[in-house]
Amino acid sequence: MDGRQLARGLGWFSVGLGLYELFARRRTFSRLGLTGRDRLVRGFGLREISAGVGILLAGRTRPGWLWTRVAGDLMDFVLLASARPLGRNQRRRLTAAKAAVIGATVVDVLCAERLSRESGGRDRKARRLRSTDTALPSRSGDIEGVVIIKRPGTIAASLR
Predict the structure, then answer these.
(1) With 80 as the cut, is the pLDDT of residue 104 above it?
(2) Number of domains, the chain
């Protein structure tokens, strides 16, 4: 399975998980020791759906959408770490949920790194652009060159 296929699968997984988080009953959250945090979890569901849709709609999957999932995984883990399980069953469920988040994070990181390598680091170069930088897009939409104005009178250009 190549990076794009894996990313597409993660996109669908993200949409499904987001829908679950958005529409799950309050009891589901309290079983993990997250009593009173249902609005926050529903917000996380919206975040998950948007990341999944971003992955699925990107014509050429960009690693940035996968890194969004990684950031979301970290938010999920912090939320789970703040849970207050009351009994042994809640502790077991919470441990299983943390293990699932860690597993998803590993897959997300591996996929994002693979896509970053496959894209040749193009996204990294684009992220390095500052607000004072100017990118010159070609007809295909890729960045063909970058013009950097460091101070008035000084221009550095880099073309492929």
Answers:
(1) yes
(2) 2
Alpha carbon distances (Å) from 97 to 26, 28, 41, 60, 140 = 16, 12, 13, 31, 43
Q: What is the model's pTM?
A: 0.70
pLDDT at 44 over 70: yes
| Lowest-pLDDT choice from 15-19, 24-28, 106-110, 151-155 | 151-155
Task: Say whether both 117 and 40 belong to one domain.
Answer: yes
Q: Rounded to the nearest 5 degrees, what angle is found at the Cα of 22, between the Cα atoms of 88 and 69?
A: 85
Same domain, residue pair 32 and 62: yes
- Spatial separation of the C-alpha atoms in residues 117 and 4, rounded to whole Å: 12
Buried b / exposed e along 47-59 (16+ C-beta atoms within 10 A): bbbbbbebbbebe
Q: Which domain holds residue 47?
A: 3-126
- At residue 103, the pLDDT reads 96
